[in-house]
Amino acid sequence: MDRHILSALFEPRSIVVFAGDPDNAEAPSPLAHTLRSALRDGGYAGVVTWLDIAMTGTLAELAQSRADLALIALPEQDVAAALEIVGRVRCRAALILSSGLPLALCAELHQTARRYGVHLLGPNSLGFQRPALKLNASALGPLAASGPLGLVSQSGALTASILDWAGNNGVGFSTVVSLGPNTAVDLPQALDFLANDAQTQSILVYMEGIRHARRFMSALRAAAYAKPVVVMKAGRKPAGSKAALTHSASIVGTDDVFDAALRRAGVVRVRAFTQLFSAAKCLASRFRPVGRRLAIVTNGGGPGVLAADWADEIGLEVSGVVDLGEDASDAAYRSALEAALADRGADGVLLIHSPKAGTDADAIAAAVGSAFSPAGKPVLACWMGDASVRSGRELLGAHSIPSFRTPEAAVDAFHSIASFYRNQQLLQQTPPPLSDLAEPDTEGARLLIEGVLAERRKVLTEMESKALLAAFHIPVTRTMLARSTNEAMLIASQLGYPVALKIDSPDISHKSDVQGVVLDVHSAAQVRDRYNDMMEAVRRALPQARINGITVQPMAGRERGHGKVREVYVGLSTDEPFGPVITFGAGGTMVELINDRAIELPPLNQFLAKRLIERSRVSELLGPWRGAPAANTEALEQVLLRVSEMVCELPQLREMDINPILVDEHGAVAVDARIVVDHAPSSSLAQGSYSHLAILPYPTSQEREWPMKGGGLYTIRPIQPDDADMLQAFVRGMSEESRYFRFASTMPELPARMLARYTLIDYDREMALVAVLKERHAQDDGSFSETERLIGVSRYITNPDQTSCEFSLAVADDFKGQGLGSRLMLSIIDIARSKGLSEIDGLILANNGNMLRLMTSLGFTIAPFPEDPDFKLASKAL
Q1: Are 69 and 94 in contact (CB under 8 A)?
Q2: Average pLDDT score over residue span 180-207
Q3: Exposed, middle or buried by CB within 10 Å (0-12, 13-18, 19+), for 517?
């Protein structure tokens, strides 16, 4: 659709205002007085009508006051009546400017807004600004300068502070939205609007919490596909549960998980609001993808050291520091910049200039500006000082070189660029729920868990935990349970010495803490003695603990070559609200003390598993180390992929420690495991629902083969990022008429950003199905090659109301009339219906007779589109 569903809120053509009589100097509330002044001083040019809840007249007369947006700034006792009038006169959006309204009243207002279909910002919001419209519908202070940044914040006070800072630093905004704690139009909806807003080039977010992880991640990922997103979040202290039953759950804090979620969403996180703008400034420059290696050029040793130290502190690599000396000329700077740009060992360049007697800051700025190309490596500048370098900074800005006042701020900005492109790689990963490894015994694993829960237990025994791992083909040590000293000695002799003994109890989380682990037992007599000693020690330490017996297993480390084995762990914890989180780090008995953790949200693929390992500190020990060959990291990646499969397919999993996992050049084996389960919500038990995950896996279950008229088969499946080349070839192969019917444009191909937007999709909020045909081609040598061709695409995108969606359809010209369009539409309708959507709509050009006939045959209602007579609106209830 041409207008976004929130356009009535953020792009109103007309407004009604409930803030008392504008001709009466006395306002009904302080916020009403503020709103009046803000509207008057802003200069909004649309129609503004002032209404009062005590107005007389008929509803028909009142309906003449209908507008896109209603602004309400009234005392608490009058707000509900005003919103009722807003609904009755069919306003499409409303803002309730207020603070401190009680929760019961907020819930009542939300219900009223839903009943009338009003998009409600607030209550307890400080409003929004749209500088280009000269619309200041807020209590956030003067109207901000117009610019390319969209700001959405959950804190009114911080929003006002940001605007005050931005006003003094020449920063402009396309949109400023202060959501507040009780708003109906929430953060995901605001992100969706900004992602689609042509005036917004970059999005800044300040947030304090989220309600729905899946909706938040879906909106954030979709926004990050479209434009750079920078997030600042409050509340960074870890919040590990004291009641955690595993190491993983006790060492993973909420903020760690939030960091992982932001990385996976392809956005940048900053810690201070000044960094919001420096990050946005650099990302808006559209530098090409880079690594973490920064070259530093300076005319003073001190500033260069400051920059290098801070780069090292935040995880960047300094590829070199070039000190040009205090009397460095403009030619010296230009030469040093050209050398750094040509250096393949540097991913970006920081130029530092501190004012010295006899140097010309302007000339140096002009020289480096002439050597800089925005299409090349990122180049950042730090012109230190104030009045003497102000014009130099302006020259740098004219050449699109971001400049900063301190070395640390410039290094932070480069870190934002490096993080953004690294995280964009993570964003592009769309793993399926199951890898392409051997199929696991998912049903057997479910039965095992159901058996444990039927016994009203939540902690699996070591034997059960290892059986669950084995069902997903994770290598485990052979383990047998002994209930007496005689059984222990018999088992040890069968397994072969040396063996390890471990207490088996559902009530003991950390066996070593109660002397429940003994290693390197070499004889039957030692097995008997260690068995008895362990049982006595455990009973003294935890007399109430239920003890199943003692497990016996071979010493895996000896089997694998003593001294060459590294100990790592893989864990699972469950976060509120992001759900399951996979952890990797150094293992062993001191896992909590070492506190080495790298975190990722499932599902994983090999790329994500590899990056997860690389982010841990123990990864430095996995290469050749102390005479030992490099560990088999591919085996570790496979363990992580298997754990990801477990997490996706078993929503009952709550916590898990696989610790230690012994890894050497031959592979990896799990020595011990502890798994905690609980009943899963009924919504997540439906096969393929994956409602317990914050990120929906690639929906492999939607793949289908269909017969082609005249013989052969074609496949309909969800689109993947790797389909970009096929999609571009499909668009290039369309006739001008077909392209015009699909895009209302005859563009010969899709621009790169649109191509990415169409192939990098979030499967929760939208779906695109492609019809793919395999074609065989004869080679000169008589052999055949096989290629894939995309021959049709259907798509829907969920509207922010979460109840309806918009569709599109295109079929290759040489495959029209073969039933392909019908099959693609029926398939996309089935998926939309399974998502709980109630209506599917689409705009069709009025002269596209074939498409109109197809939609009519599929049960769509065709009606005029009131906003543009060139289009028809096709709608179907689901």
Answers
A1: yes
A2: 92
A3: middle
Place of tokens 């009535």: 8
Q: For residue 146, name the pLDDT band (cuts at 50, 70, 90).
A: very high
Rounded CA separation 617/614 (Å): 8
Class of residue 243 by CB neighbours under 10 A (exposed 0-12, middle 13-18, buried 19+)? exposed
Place of tokens 């002269």: 847
DSSP 601: P
Longest Cα separation, the chain: 100
Amino acid at 507: D
Burial of 53 (0-12, 13-18, 19+ CB in 10 A): middle
Continuous H helices in 5-49: 7-10, 30-42
Pair of tokens at residue 652: 């009952």
What is the CB-side half-sphere exposure of residue 183 using CA atoms within 13 A? 30
pLDDT at 242: 45
Amino acid 603: pLDDT: 96
Strand order in the sheet with 549-554: 480-482, 549-554, 499-504, 517-521
Question: CA-CA distance, 90 to 128, in Å (whole number)?
Answer: 21
Q: What is the pLDDT of residues 678-705, one digit of tens each?
A: 998 877 766 667 989 999 999 998 999 9
* Tens-digit pLDDT profile for residues 4-42: 889 999 999 999 999 998 888 899 999 999 999 999 999
Residue ranges of domains in the chain, CATH in brackets: 288-427 (3.40.50.261), 431-521+542-698 (3.30.470.20), 701-877 (3.40.630.30)
Which residue, 221, 258, 377, 231, is CA-closest to 721?
A: 221
Task: Confirm if 381 and 296 have CB atoms less than 8 A apart.
Answer: no
Give the dihedral sign, CA 258/263/266/271. Answer: positive
Rounded Cα gap, residues 381 and 393, in angstroms = 8
Q: Quickly state the pLDDT bin for 168 (edges 50, 70, 90).
A: confident
For every residue of 278-295, DSSP letters joined together read HHHHHHTTTPPP--SEEE
Average pLDDT, integer, range 537-552? 92
Distances (CA, A) of 421 to 283, 388, 505, 657: 10, 35, 47, 32
Mean pLDDT for the chain?
Answer: 89
**Dihedral, CA of residue 298, residue 302, residue 303 and residue 306, to nearest 10:** 130
Record the pTM.
0.86
The full 3-state SS of 513-581, as one line of letters, equals HHCCEEEEECCHHHHHHHHHHHHHHHHHHCCCCCCCEEEEEECHHHHCCCCCCEEEEEEEEEECCCEEE
194 within 8 A of 143, measured Cβ to Cβ: no
- pLDDT(708) > 60: yes
Q: Between the ranges 543-557, 567-581, 777-791, where is the mean pLDDT highest?
A: 567-581
How far apart are the C-alpha atoms of 336 and 317, rounded to whole Å? 19
* Residue 558: band (very low, low, confident or very high) from pLDDT cuts 50, 70, 90: very low
Q: Residue 557 has which token pair?
A: 């480390």
What is the C-alpha separation between 750 and 743, in angstroms, rounded?
10
Taking residues 143-166, what's their average pLDDT? 91
Q: Could you list the beta-strand ranges (E) of 226-374.
A: 229-233, 268-270, 293-298, 317-323, 348-353
Is the pLDDT score of 250 beyond 80?
Answer: no
6-31 exposure pattern, b = at least 16 Cβ within 10 A, e = fewer: bbbbbbbeebbbbbbeeeeeebbbeb
Helices 103-116 and 76-88, interaxial angle, to 10°?
10
Let me know: does 572 contact 673? Beta carbons within 8 Å: no
When pLDDT is averaged across residues 163-188 and rounded to a whole number, the result is 91
Q: Which strands sit side by side in the sheet containing 173-178, from one edge to the other?
A: 135-138, 127-130, 173-178, 146-153, 202-207, 229-233, 268-270
Strands 348-353 and 379-383, bridge-based pairing? parallel
For helices 407-427 and 301-313, the axis angle rounded to 10 degrees is 30
